[in-house]
């Protein structure tokens, strides 16, 4: 069950990197499409199984361009866990062409329901811990790191922290953002409690603990932030920042319990479970390293991503070579997580290897290539390295907006790439 799922169609990944101008995906419409295929499915179960419950997407307060990160490319696995696939409305004849989304049952479901639910639990944890990704922000007209998981909270904190006060438009935009996050997160705890049922197994106990943490994230973090934003004419920025820090901390605790539950549910060894529960900064050696390496090479998507995160704690050798292989993973989040771990592990020696990998990736996964280059470009000492790779890109993919914008910014006199 923990093993690799059926490979994604390669074209899915490619279309994802070129579809950023597509319109925003409407979760409610998508849920209605799921209901048509699976009558009786609850909204909470839909959000939990697809991984949408863990998504708090953010680029900057007054812009929602990062919402485009959510598309069918990143939902293929999640819909598959529900036994669904998306089809083009036009394929279904004129009567259905007006519906925004059409979902149909897969002919063959991917494994037993309980195993698909355990994968969904692991996927929620992986999404919560997902590293930020680079995007061309349409409002800022520059490259920004955009967040999809808990990182969003610290991104908001960073963005409001320097402001003496919140302008009315900023306040309104933040309110809209918080409302959307509250709606999404409100589904997480009921989903996990449904999976746990009335049981008192180790698996169920971890799920209930995660649900409690999500309750706190919602109440003491997101809803408190919304209240403090609205209760006074001039919002108390310091209090809102404190609320969001609580949200981030408690969501991290929820992710720990989800990892624990997924490992127990998937019957991993004790060594692997303990290794994944430790932070990526903890040294990873011996038998635990072997297990995480094996997971990174043969696990299903969420487990590969969690392994890539944990391998940051390995020192050179097998852990490092496994991370280098993961840079070419068909899943974007896995590749980016691996790149971040490599850079953490060896900030001095790895940039050259990462730049070379980005050049190799340019043709097949330009989104991951750009993400790696942006990570490198955060340090001005590496700008010439990045510029060299971008020169290769220009001949390879002249029409790629993400890469050409990046090249443009690096050529500016101030060399200002702005990952915030
Ligand atoms: Zn934006």
Describe the structure.
With 420 residues, the chain is mainly α. It has a domain of 267 residues. The protein contains 19 helices and four strands. A two-stranded antiparallel ribbon has the order 1-2. The protein has a two-stranded antiparallel ribbon with strand order 3-4. The longest helix is centred in the middle third of the chain and has 29 residues. The radius of gyration is 21 Å and the shape is globular. The two termini are 39 Å apart. The relative contact order is 0.10. The C terminus is likely disordered. Zinc ion binds next to loops.
Chart the SSEs and their pairings.
Blueprint: H1 10-18, H2 27-37, H3 43-50, H4 72-81, E1 84-87, E2 102-105, H5 113-128, E3 133-137, E4 142-146, H6 151-161, H7 168-185, H8 188-196, H9 202-230, H10 237-265, H11 270-277, H12 286-298, H13 301-310, H14 317-326, H15 332-345, H16 350-361, H17 366-377, H18 383-396, H19 401-411
Antiparallel strand pairs: 1-2, 3-4
Bound molecules: zinc ion (ZN).
The H/E string reads HHHHEEHEEHHHHHHHHHHHHHH
Mean pLDDT: 85
- Report how far apart the termini are: 39 Å
Strand order of the largest sheet: 1-2
User: Structural class, judged by helices and strands?
Assistant: mainly alpha
What share of residues are in beta strands? Answer: under 5%
Residue share in helix: 55-70%
Mass-distribution shape: globular
| Main sheet: strands, sense, barrel | 2 strands, antiparallel
Instruction: State the helix count.
Output: 19
Number of strands: 4
Query: Runs with pLDDT <50, length 5+?
Result: 5-22, 413-420
